[in-house]
Amino acid sequence: MHFDPAEALSREELDRLQVTRLREIMARAARSPFYARKFAEAGIGPDDITTPADIRKLPVTTKQDLRESYPYGLLTVPVPELVRLHASSGTTGSPTAVFYTRQDIETWASLMARCMHMCGVRPSDVFQNMSGYGLFTGGLGIHYGAERLGCLTIPAGAGNSRRQVKLIKDFGVSVVHIIPSYALHFADFLLSEGIEPASLPIRIALIGAEPHTEETRRRIEGLYGCKAYNSYGLSEMNGPGVAFECTEQRGMHLWEDAYIAEIVDPETMEPTPEGEIGELVMTTLTREGMPILRYRTRDLTRFLPGPCACGRAHRRIDRIAGRSDDMLIIKGVNIYPMQVEQILMGMPEVGSNYLIELTRDGHMDQFTVKVEITEEFFVEDMRSLNALRGRVQAKLRDELLITPRVELVQHGSLPVSEGKAKRVSDLRPKE
Ligand code: AMP
Ligand code: ZN
What we know:
Layout: H1 11-29, H2 33-42, H3 63-68, E1 82-87, E2 97-101, H4 102-118, E3 126-129, H5 137-149, E4 152-154, H6 161-171, E5 175-177, H7 180-192, E6 204-208, H8 214-224, E7 227-234, E8 239-245, E9 252-254, E10 259-264, E11 278-284, E12 295-301, E13 316-317, E14 322-323, E15 328-330, E16 333-335, H9 337-345, E17 350-361, E18 364-373, H10 382-400, E19 405-410, E20 424-426
Parallel strand pairs: 3-4, 3-5, 5-6, 6-7, 17-20, 18-19
Antiparallel strand pairs: 1-2, 7-8, 8-9, 9-13, 10-11, 11-12, 12-14, 15-16, 17-18
Helix pairs in contact: 4-5, 7-8, 8-9, 9-10
This protein binds adenosine monophosphate (AMP) and zinc ion (ZN).
Adenosine monophosphate binds at residues 88-89, 137, 208-211, 230-235, 297, 299, 320, 323.
């Protein structure tokens, strides 16, 4: 039933394993100049850890720390012992590099294979990886996982929709990995070619790498007639394979034999009460080349209370609600792009793409939502278009508590990115 016996560990076993591994990884991390200094400053060592909660005695690591230690300041092995480098996508500033030993690649591939197996992928599946390769971990990271599981694996990469569909048809692809914004765009492409997306042999889509809502997942499932499972990861924690949905589709199991997760109030750094949203802080327990402890991910989520019906004790996190650094403050109101997506993707008239545009009129910030409308609803009749615009605006106002400008645009007219979608375009003059 399980791909890896670690999936079956009980809460008590996981707690014990976390303590042992945290002590080991601290000893290892202390070999790097960065953690040697951090531990000395905090006056802390492995012997101070007796329960998983003792992790709170450790200092946190931030993106800024990684930048300052660039390129090699967090290594615990000499460069010749490394076999791979990846970099984070740098959606928020300059990229940071992460390094892997041969063993790290092995561990990562096994974690990823475990995720895929958990949601029903089997060695008999033909798997197409439709995400970018290169420095992005969603390429080789998922690729190695699929091979480790034993699937025939097609490294299609991102974009080139015409070639993607040919590969899917020619080789009977049953499982794909695809970024959710591209999954919606790809469905548009198929329909424009007269191909019904559900006529393809895809039975499972692994979707992730960018924030998306439950409404978006349901849309993707409806379009392709498949199951779509949320995949969460970040380069600093290897890449994909950190947390993944099981077939229950109620939150993502975070692999607690390989990582310690905390959810904290980003202001006070105190753990949030169970079930409440906060910032995810992550620790690698098994990484050799570049351990990272108490990393502030900026991703906002919560632990889902209670056990999962699948029986795995590894705790579940809710889908990522956004990043603490992508919160917009418009007219004094806090807005997350995912609130906009949730409304839009729940409306059948709305097409596959949208864009939030921020501008300034005099001293006032203006918040405009550009919305693609499906072909079917993009009628010439001004009156019905205006009525639709009013409906979109009213729904957004109810959710956001401010009234955005809404522009309806023809489907296929907004920019599409090959990687993670850019949902906000900030055109306000720099201060
Ligand atoms: P990178 O390391 O460049 O691949 O970026 C990692 C970041 O992508 C994470 O910190 C999240 O902000 C985002 N991300 C990855 N997977 C998901 C997911 N399933 N849902 C929402 N955001 C995600
Ligand atoms: Zn489960």
